[in-house]
Amino acid sequence: MTFLTDLTQAFRENASADNAGPMEAYMKHHFQFYGIKAPLRKQITKQIGSQHKTEVKNNAREIGLTLLQQQQREFHYAAMEILEKELRGKFVKKDIELIEKTLITDSWWDTVDFLAKYLLGNYLLQFPEETETVVARFSDSENMWLNRSAILFQLGYKNKTDVALLFALCEKHSGSGEFFIQKAIGWALREYAKTDPKAVIKFVLDTTLKPLSKREALKNL
């Protein structure tokens, strides 16, 4: 039996129609759900993964992409968690193609935000020389989720944050009418404000931002 076969069986055995309806509604009916809540889903994925440890470790990239092709959202969550765990500190340069694929496949905030921080963010920490090229491409893309990822990838960087780049990206997209871009700008600034609140306050005061972005940026200040 393979990891995917066993995971699928376990997900089906733990499916809950009572949970699936509200979960699908919360995600605006963009995705199908088995109705497995996060703690149980993570437990199942961890248990099945431990039973197929070598397979998962040696084929994490292929398994991740295969999981992303499944219909139910629980598979997508499992994909991103496996990729984060297995590739952390072990990225190769061409993994940016894999990361971009995960970001633009069945995109919504629930996966993109995790992937932006833990895959894209960690990849660029490992290969900082790729930052300028990757971020420029993502930021210039017509895909809104790649734009959001470029804004958010430094979440958690703290003192490692490239402040000039963060502010430049926020200013570049400051006129966007997209809710998810406005929200991302505010979130990224609010997060960096934990490290340098004065710099964020000055940037917000000196920059024309959408009300939502400004409100989110200054929420805790």
Radius of gyration: 19 Å
Number of helices: 14
Structural class: mainly alpha
Oligomer: single chain
Q: Helicity, in percent?
A: 55-70%
Biggest beta sheet summary = none
Overall pLDDT? 97
Our measurement of the CA-to-CA distance between the termini, rounded to an integer number of angstroms, reads 53 Å
Spell out the helices and strands N to C.
HHHHHHHHHHHHHH
How many E strands?
0
Residue runs with pLDDT of under 50 for 5 or more positions: none
Report the sheet-strand fraction: under 5%
Based on Cα principal axes, name the global outline.
globular
Any overview of this molecule?
- This protein has 221 residues and is mainly alpha-helical.
- Helix content is 70%, strand content 0%.
- The protein has helices at 3-13, 17-26, 38-51, 53-58, 60-68, 73-87, 95-104, 109-126, 131-140, 144-152, 163-172, 179-193, 197-206, 211-217.
- It is globular, with a radius of gyration of 19 Å.
- 35% of the residues are buried.
Which keywords apply here?
221 residues, globular
SSE diagram, text form:
Elements: H1 3-13, H2 17-26, H3 38-51, H4 53-58, H5 60-68, H6 73-87, H7 95-104, H8 109-126, H9 131-140, H10 144-152, H11 163-172, H12 179-193, H13 197-206, H14 211-217
In short:
Helix content is 70%, strand content 0%. With 221 residues, the protein is mainly alpha-helical.
